[in-house]
Every structure is written in C-alpha cells, then in structure tokens.
C-alpha cells in the first residue's frame, strides 16, 4: 500500500491506496504515465490517491490549477484575470507580482479561457485553450539596449506543441551569452515569450504561495525540521493566520450591505495589524494575502451542482483598536526559501 498526504481546510490528511492501476488492453496506463520510462509509477499512484480525494478520475478531468496545488502543498492561492479591461498600471502590477512570486519560490501557472464546446483547442500561435501551463522561470534580458522581461512556460504534454510567436525574432537581438544561459531544448514543451506577449495571449495567471502549511513547520519546531533546515537562513518571510468561520442566518449572516445595512456589522470580523515591511520595498509596504475557502465544494460539483456560493471580504481601515471579542485562530510561521 502507499500513503499520500493532502491538505484540506487547514489540516493534512493521510490517503491510503493500493497499487492497482487502470491499464489499457495493450498494457499502457490509461491516465498519467511517463512515455520514456514505463516503469515509473509515482505519478499514476499520486493521481489515484488524488482521484480518491476528488471522488473519481472523472472529477479530475477539468478544474483550476491552483486547486490541485493547494491540496498538495497547503499553499495560498492568488489569481489574476488578464483578458479583462486592463490598464498600463495593472499590467505593471501583474509583472511586479509575477517577479515577487517567482523570487519567493511560489508555484506559477497560466491558462487561456476555453471554448465550452471544444476541448483543448489549439490556436495558430501554438498555444492551447483550456490547458494548464506551468511558469518555470522569469528573467530580464537586454534587447536593443533596453531591458525586457521574458517568461518561460512549460506545456506538460512535453512535445512540440509550443508558442511559435515573435520570440524567435526577439531572440536575435539578445546577446550570445544570454541566449546560452536561457537556452531550452527544442520540442520539449518549454518555451520563452516576452512578458508583453504573455500578458496579451494568456487570460489567467495562477499563483500558489507556499506558506507555512506547505512547509509543515511552526515557529517552535522549525529548528527541528530537518527538511526545512536544508533551506533555512533564519529569516521568516510569511506569517499565516487561519480562521474557521461561517455565516449563520440570524447570527453572523449580515449580508453584503446593499440591503439591511443595519445587520452588516454582524458579519464575521477579524482584526489585522501589519507590523512589518517587505525587504527592499521603497514604499515601506507589506504584502498581505487574504484568501477565502469554502468547504465541501467537491461533492456538490460531482453531483452536478454549483460548487461555490458567492462570498466576499472587505477591508476597512480602523481609526482605533478595540478588541470586543476573542477569536479562535491558528498561527504558523514559514521559513525563508532562498
């Protein structure tokens, strides 16, 4: 038997499976497999364990990249829609976030909105709609005496289905040294594109920040966690506070404030004090990520129902601090990965 651990709603759960895997009659694995090494089985075993979490193999046919990354790492999701009404400021903001996430070893992905009537339609530029790409690197290079940002993406198919856009023309303007340092193998699914082309052609940017839950450490036991000490430099980069709450009619369901404003204050409230700034931030600002997660959404999806209800959070600035209630919370710290 094999044991796998998945993160669900703030806790790690052990999932046990056997080694019976679905095969075709000709001996090929039905789903995930290594085309070069037929004896490599960790991926289909992981896939089977995750299918057990999701309810079936069929339930994993589609979905969001960050959902799987969160389940497997305990990280925190951040997502950006790139194909809406955008401004130069928003484009620059996304680039800063992309760079910051890459430098912090966050896991990055991107995708193009799919046609609901076509599965993974291939575009003339080589990209595939409704397909999950990984972002494996971000780099600045010099082109025609100007600095430009490049993004390296990976198609998990690992074949010749790659971006065939303007990067080939851009490549000739980059020095031979930088070309050698950035070089990728042909037809392996990995390719470079300029940030401008990335922003123009992809519709979603998915980020999974590997916070304290993904490292399995707290401030107290970080020194004794041998795996984490491989990367430790005694610098904490994330502090996480996890709350389990609910909207209960008549108690804590105060609505959106559009109607019945007199009850809005009954919504769950959490006081946040930011006491640190990001290293190197010229404006002395601190990165804070707020994420809402709804429980038991998989079962509803499997049953063909809408998975999530509409929820939101709002941030207000307090003029003074007065704690009126005690909240149950779980605080963990992450170590710096560098």
Automatic annotation (TrEMBL):
Active-site residues, record numbering mapped to chain: 131, 155
PROSITE patterns, per the entry: CALPAIN_CAT
Lineage of source species: Eukaryota, Metazoa, Spiralia, Gnathifera, Rotifera
Coiled coil regions in record: none
Family: Belongs to the peptidase C2 family.
Matching SUPFAM superfamilies: Calpain large subunit, middle domain (domain III) (SSF49758), Cysteine proteinases (SSF54001)
Name by which UniProt lists this protein: Calpain catalytic domain-containing protein
Gene3D superfamilies on file: 2.60.120.380, Cysteine proteinases
């Amino acid at each position: 038997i094999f044991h796998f651990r998945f993160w669900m709603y703030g806790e790690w759960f052990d999932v046990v499976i056997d080694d019976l895997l679905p095969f075709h009659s000709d001996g090929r694995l039905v789903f995930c497999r290594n085309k070069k090494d037929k004896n490599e089985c960790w991926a289909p075993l992981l896939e089977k364990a995750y299918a057990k979490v999701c309810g079936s193999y069929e339930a994993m046919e589609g979905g969001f990249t960050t959902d799987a990354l969160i389940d497997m790492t305990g990280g925190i999701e951040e997502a950006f829609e790139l194909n809406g009404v955008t401004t130069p400021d928003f484009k620059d903001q996304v680039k800063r976030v992309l760079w910051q996430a890459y430098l912090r070893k966050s896991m990055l992905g991107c995708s193009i909105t799919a046609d609901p009537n076509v599965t993974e339609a291939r575009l003339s530029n080589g990209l595939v709609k409704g397909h999950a790409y990984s972002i494996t690197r971000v780099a600045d290079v010099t082109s025609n005496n100007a600095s430009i940002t490049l993004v390296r993406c990976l198609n998990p198919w690992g074949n010749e289905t790659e971006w065939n856009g303007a990067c080939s023309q851009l490549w000739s303007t980059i020095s031979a040294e930088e070309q050698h340092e950035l070089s990728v193998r042909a037809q392996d699914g990995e390719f470079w594109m300029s940030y401008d082309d990335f922003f123009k052609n992809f519709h979603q940017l998915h980020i999974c920040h590997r916070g304290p839950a993904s490292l399995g450490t707290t401030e107290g036991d970080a020194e004794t966690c041998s795996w984490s000490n491989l990367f430790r430099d005694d610098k904490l980069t994330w502090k996480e506070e996890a709350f389990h709450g609910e909207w209960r009619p008549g108690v804590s369901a105060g609505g959106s404030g559009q109607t019945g404003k007199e009850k809005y204050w009954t919504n769950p409230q959490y006081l946040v004090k930011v006491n640190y700034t990001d290293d190197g931030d010229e404006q002395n600002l601190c990165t804070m990520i707020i994420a809402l997660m709804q429980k038991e959404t998989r079962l509803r999806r499997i049953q063909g129902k809408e998975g999530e209800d509409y929820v939101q959070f709002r941030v207000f600035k307090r003029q003074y601090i007065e704690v009126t209630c005690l909240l149950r919370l779980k605080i963990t710290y992450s170590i710096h990965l560098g």
